[in-house]
Amino acid sequence: SLSRTASAPALGSALLSARRIEDLTAVTYPANIQSPKNSEPGKYKYDRGFLMQFMTVCKDKPENLPTDVIAMEEAKDDKKRGTRA
Amino acid sequence: SSVFTFNAEGEMRTVFSDPVNFNVKHPLFNSWTLWFDNPGKKASTASWSQNLKELITFDSVEEFWGVYNNIVKASDLFSGSNYHLFKHGIKPMWEDTANEQGGKWVIQFPRNKTGEEINNYWLYTMLACIGESFDYPDEICGTVVSVRKIFYRISLWTRTSTNKEICETLGRQLKQTLGVSPNQQLEFQPHSDSIKTGTHTKERFVV
């Protein structure tokens, strides 16, 4: 539809079309990004320091992630307060 | 459109160089499934398995963070709730064939002293699992964070409950991952203990 083409790509569309990296050693990272340590061919081992670097970059919600089933304390607190300010 | 096509000479664009139009992602060695349950007031076995919800299965670093950044933090969950992160195909229950011979390392954190730190403990444990950081990665089944009135609990489920070397190595590495004091003693709990209570002559693993 027209509205669909006019809108921005759906969140996470790059995630769906991105190819799996075969050889981690073939990847060039920006200078400020640490490469994975102790990676073994085909094992896809990643240390915490490497993984943490994605935290602030990968923010998009996967399309198939249901969040309505997760009950949280905040909901209870909102109810107590009556309305959200 | 051609923007999204990858050709042999094309460069690999990671999420770091192009957060919107990246064309490669970092595969995980295993696929992982995140489950959630909140048994509510009724705590019978029947209601527990009915309440267990499969949220999502993912197999890349980028997807993991997309999930983590868009779900409720452990510290914000209702008491009684659990997140379970298990290898795809393994249900987070004793009855699963991958678990039935296994057991778990368990660490409890008092809620009042721990607060939001539990979010880091849970995150670090998940990262060690999905990053295949443990010395016997094939022996890992999954990990659980449990939210209760006065404590949080992190469990690491293993495939074996009889191999001392494997169990104790994983227990020590869990302690390292969480940064708990080497003096804090952890005891391994075979699932068979949880299923049938009674006398036990089996050796106890402790780290």
Walk me through what this model shows:
- Chain A has one domain (about 1-85).
- In chain A, about 30% of the residues lie in helices and about 0% in strands.
- Chain A has helices at about 1-5, 15, 50, 75-80; one strand spanning about 20.
- In chain A, about 15% of the residues are buried.
- The model of chain A is unreliable at about 1-10 and about 75-85 (pLDDT under 50).
- By secondary structure, chain B is α+β, with helices and mostly antiparallel strands.
- Chain B has a single domain (about 30-195), classed as RNA Cap, Translation Initiation Factor Eif4e.
- Chain B is built from six helices and eight strands, in the order E-E-H-E-H-E-E-H-H-E-E-H-E-H.
- Chain B has helices at about 45-50, 60-70, 110-115, 115-130, 165-180, 190-195, and strands at about 25, 25-35, 55-60, 80-85, 105-110, 140-145, 150-160, 190.
- Residues about 1-10 of chain B have low confidence and may be disordered.
- Classes of the chains: A mainly alpha (about 80), B alpha+beta (about 210).
- Chains A and B meet through helix 2, strand 1, helix 3 and helix 4 of A and strand 1, strand 2, strand 3, helix 2 and helix 4 of B.
Summarize the structure.
The complex is a heterodimer of chains A (85) and B (207). Chain A is mainly α and 85 residues long. In chain A, 28% of the residues lie in helices and 2% in strands.
Helix-strand layout with pairing:
The complex is a heterodimer of chains A (85) and B (207).
Chain A: H1 2-6, H2 13-17, E1 19-20, H3 48-52, H4 73-81
Chain B: E1 24-25, E2 27-37, H1 45-51, E3 53-60, H2 61-68, E4 82-87, E5 103-110, H3 111-114, H4 117-130, E6 140-147, E7 151-158, H5 164-178, E8 188-190, H6 191-195
Antiparallel strand pairs in B: 2-3, 2-4, 4-6, 5-7, 5-8, 6-7
